[in-house]
Structures are given as structure tokens and as C-alpha cells.
Amino acid sequence: MPDMLVKLYELPAIQPAIDAITTHGVTMRRAIAPEKHLILAWIRQHFSEFWVNEADAAFSRQPASIFVAQEGNTLLGFACYDVTARGFFGPTGVSEAARGKKVGAALLLAALHDMYAQGYGYAAIGGVGPADFYAKVAGAVIIPDSSPGMYKGMLESEDGDKG
């Protein structure tokens, strides 16, 4: 899967994305250390151990580079940056039940806007799956010849899973 590049200085405004999730009763915010174990357990349950490791790294940043979306006390999704490499967005994931409610778009834009506020001009999105989503929401473009990129030579699990 290729990497993509986003011009952080040309991001769409985040408020419409926040308004869109608020209509579904969803809130979004930066995660805090006391809930780390709950968030990592949720990522383990819904995604992969590789993503757990990356999200864990996001908690080591100050401020943490992980955002979460929730409905009441129910976690719906997360988005990280600066975990595999500086200037990289991801991983990010949204529960199947919350897909289609604009949660992924809001999390993506929250993290990218935060990267811009931290002084980045561009963000790489490593090993993208839904390239059309990133292009539509953030104007991301595919970086030619970028697969496997940062993940080249990464250890795999016994079943061949890379994450």
C-alpha cells in the first residue's frame, strides 16, 4: 500500500467535521494518560497488535498525539500521529458501528490540524488503505513508489500479518 502526502497549510476547516459528528451525539478530544489502558484494549479488540504498539507510542508524546471519538462512555474511534516516524499520520480506526457518521473524517482532520499547529507543513500517511477517503477529506495525494516505505523489512507475525 502506498503512502500519501497532505499539505497541512491547505486543510479544510475542522468545524464542519465537528458539527457533523455532534449531530450523532459524538464528541472528539485528545486522549489522556489515565485512559491509555482502555484505549489500547479497544484498539487490540477491533484492530491489531501493531496498531496497539503505535497508539502506545502516541501516549509517550507531550501532549499525547492521539485523538479519540466517543459517544457517552463508548469509544468509537482513534487517530494518531508521530508514532512510526515524525510527520506521519496514523494509525486511525473507527468501529464498524460508527462508520458513515463522519467520525473518521473528524479524527483525521483533528490530528492533521494539530500537526500543523505543532509546526509541520506536510504530513505523510503511511501505507494507506482507503486512498479515496484521504484524498476527499484532506486533499492527500499518493506518493509514487512509496510502498512499502517506512514499513520495509518490518517483522511479521507467524501468520504473515503486518498490521
Descriptive notes:
With 163 residues, the protein is of the alpha+beta class. It has one domain (4-151): Aminopeptidase. The chain contains five helices and seven strands. The longest helix has 15 residues, at 103-117.
Task: Briefly characterize the structure.
Helices cover 33% and strands 21% of the residues. It has helices at 15-22, 36-46, 49-59, 103-117, 131-138; strands spanning 4-7, 27-30, 66-71, 74-81, 88-94, 122-125, 141-142.
DSSP summary: helix tally: 5
Strand content: 15-25%
Poorly predicted segments = none
Q: H/E series, N to C?
A: EHEHHEEEHEHE
Number of domains: 1
Overall shape: globular
Spell out the key features of this protein.
single chain; Aminopeptidase; seven-stranded mixed sheet; 7 strands; about 35% helix
List the helices and strands and how they pair.
Blueprint: E1 4-7, H1 15-22, E2 27-30, H2 36-46, H3 49-59, E3 66-71, E4 74-81, E5 88-94, H4 103-117, E6 122-125, H5 131-138, E7 141-142
Parallel strand pairs: 5-6
Antiparallel strand pairs: 1-6, 1-7, 2-3, 3-4, 4-5
